[in-house]
Structure to design on (142 residues):
C-alpha cells in the first residue's frame, strides 16, 4: 500500500517539476502607443497617456492642429498638408508635418513620430466647428 502512495506521489512531483520548470523565452516587444498598433489618437488639446504599461506617466497633447488639405468637392492646385504640434509632459514640443517622420530623443530615450492623419477631413458643405478634431500620430520607441 505504501508503494502505491509513494509511486503516485513521485509521479505528481515529477509532473509538477516538468510543467513548472520549463525555460520560458521572454520577448520584449517594441514599446508603442497602442491604439491602432503604434498609432495614438490625440483629441485636440486633450492630454493622452502614451505607451500604457511601457512608460508610466508620459503624456502627450496636440496643442496645434492645422489642416490645409484640399476640401471635399473642391478644385485645388495642391493637395495640402496637415500640421501639428505635439507637446510631451508640458515640457517638450515636436512640430509635425503629415507623413514626414521626426526622430528625436526625450529623457534619454529615442522616439520616432509621424503625423499619419487628422479628422475631420476638410469639407466646406458641413459646419465642422462642432466636430471633435483628432490627430493620428504614429509613435515608436526605439
Amino acid at each position: 500500500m505504501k508503494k502505491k502512495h509513494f509511486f503516485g506521489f513521485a509521479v505528481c512531483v515529477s509532473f509538477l517539476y516538468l510543467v513548472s520548470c520549463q525555460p520560458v523565452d521572454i520577448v520584449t516587444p517594441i514599446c508603442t502607443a497602442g491604439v491602432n498598433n503604434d498609432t495614438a489618437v490625440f483629441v485636440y488639446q486633450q492630454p493622452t497617456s502614451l505607451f500604457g504599461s511601457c512608460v508610466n506617466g508620459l503624456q502627450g497633447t496636440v496643442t496645434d492642429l492645422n489642416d490645409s488639405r484640399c476640401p471635399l468637392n473642391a478644385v485645388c492646385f495642391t493637395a495640402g498638408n496637415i500640421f501639428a504640434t505635439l507637446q510631451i509632459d508640458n515640457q517638450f514640443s515636436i512640430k509635425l508635418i503629415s507623413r514626414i517622420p521626426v526622430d528625436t530623443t526625450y529623457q534619454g530615450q529615442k522616439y520616432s513620430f509621424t503625423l499619419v492623419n487628422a479628422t475631420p477631413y476638410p469639407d466646406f458643405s458641413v459646419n465642422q466647428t462642432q466636430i471633435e478634431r483628432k490627430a493620428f500620430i504614429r509613435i515608436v520607441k526605439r
